[in-house]
Write a structure and sequence with these properties.
Layout lengths: L1 H21 L4 E14 L16 E13 L4 E16 L2 H4 L12 E19 L5 E25 L1 E9 L10 E15 L2 E12 L4 E3 L4 E17 L4
Antiparallel strand pairs: 1-2, 1-10, 2-3, 3-4, 4-5, 5-6, 5-7, 7-8, 8-10, 9-10
Amino acid sequence: MKCIHAQFTLLLAFFFCSFIQLSAQHSLGVRTGVHFADVSVPNLEVLSDIISPPRTNSGGQFGILMNFPISDRTSIQTELSYIQKGFRVSDAVFDQLFRENFTNDLGIDAKTTFHYLEFSPLLKVKLGENRFTPYFAFAPYVGYAMSGNIKEEVNIIINITLNQTDINLQKEIYNRLDIGAMGGFGLQLDFKSGFAFTDLMFGYSFVDFVDNPEVQLTMRNLGVRWGIGIAFFLKKK
């Protein structure tokens, strides 16, 4: 675990050193949006006695970005973000895998949320040189789960939280390091002092964040991200 912490610290150091060295020629901005998070569960039919199909858990994302132009149509956009991942279920037996003494009555959902700090170097390729231009984007990403919780919610016109319990991520069944990739498309609007954008991205993890050998259960993060952002050119030296 100490090795993972050291690697993630080095990654953050690289991000901020890039800002110090290159900020005079590039752009700095922010992004925000919604993450429609879900999970992949292999052998779901085999595990039907302990798990009901997970459903989408909508969460937020917010981050800072630096955009480094490579050419008139191509750029690298490094992003450091806070993002929520997770899922919803209605099955009490399944949720006992995440916390002890969990009880669930009919009509109550268990909303499981993990809070990640994530870094991604996004490759953006614009499809033209107009002021308002679509683009394709792709990036690997690495994230670290800072914390997690389960909320018991009941829907009575609106979602009402009945109880919340923290997840102990120190347990051996959890992997806090998340490595994956995302790709999608967006629209960018250029203006004199910078640019604004919106994009739609699909992300998929390459590693299991849950691995419980006792019940042969593994889970991976996936989801659709919709975001908007704005960036401003920094003054040259």
